[in-house]
Design brief:
The chain is mostly helical. It has one helix and no strands. The model has no long low-confidence stretch (mean pLDDT about 90).
Length: about 60
């Protein structure tokens, strides 16, 4: 009998490395990675929008 059950082990966080071999991943794992990348794209786009708004406000303030 093992000391630790599989359920007791911490779950490995889903990560993705650009260009990594995908042949060993299941469809569920690929789906999780696609969702991870979509979430990251949304986060990046939101940050860009925020920075553009701050830049526009500064430009307006300094009348560029």
């Amino acid at each position: 009998m093992p000391v630790f059950d599989d359920d007791d082990r911490p779950k490995k966080k889903v990560t993705h490395e650009i260009g990594q071999d995908l042949s060993l991943l299941s469809v569920d794992e690929l789906t999780a990675r696609v969702q991870l990348l979509h979430d990251e794209i949304n986060r990046l786009e939101a940050d860009m929008a925020s920075k553009r708004a701050k830049r526009a406000a500064a430009d307006q303030f300094f009348k560029r």
